[in-house]
Amino acid sequence: GFAGLVTNCTFVGNSGRAGGGVSDVTNVVGCVFTGNSSAVDSTTDGGGAARNSSLWNCVLTNNTAIYRFAALANCHVYRSSFRGNKTNYDTQPQVAVASDFTDCDLDGSEAKSAACEYDFRTCTFDRCLFRRYSQKGIGQVSLCATNCLFVSNFISRVCNETSSTLANALVNCTLVGNMYNALFRYSADGGT
What is the pTM of this model? Predict the structure, then answer.
């Protein structure tokens, strides 16, 4: 990968197999990603905005993916904000896979189909704000959140499991004004 620095850049309307905005960049600082896309059809890859990269103080809005993970795949993200990132398939994970988030603002207020299952898969969060999500679940398969704030979410569950061996955890989190049926739910078929 590229070990350099990309700073204060704007990425608009770019596309790639994976990582439509950037891929394999060690330091991405103060950048804006809008309307970028990923065309990969994969259960573990994608990233309309970024893939295999580290982002600081970035804004990611309205990025897309043909199949899964419209914003990120395999990234480290710090002090960044997300809104309106979604795939073309409403039943697939919308925002990110295998990524970790620290001090991020995650706004789920964009309109999504009722079929949308969740936004994050195998992700970890520290000191993040989750707000205005209205779908079946925020995460699936090992969602771990520490010191996070969940505000005004209208969801069926915080996390849905398709394997009873995978772990979910909310540690030192605050939940305010949310409506949900269950914090965690195990379902062998991933159903509702």
Answer: 0.85
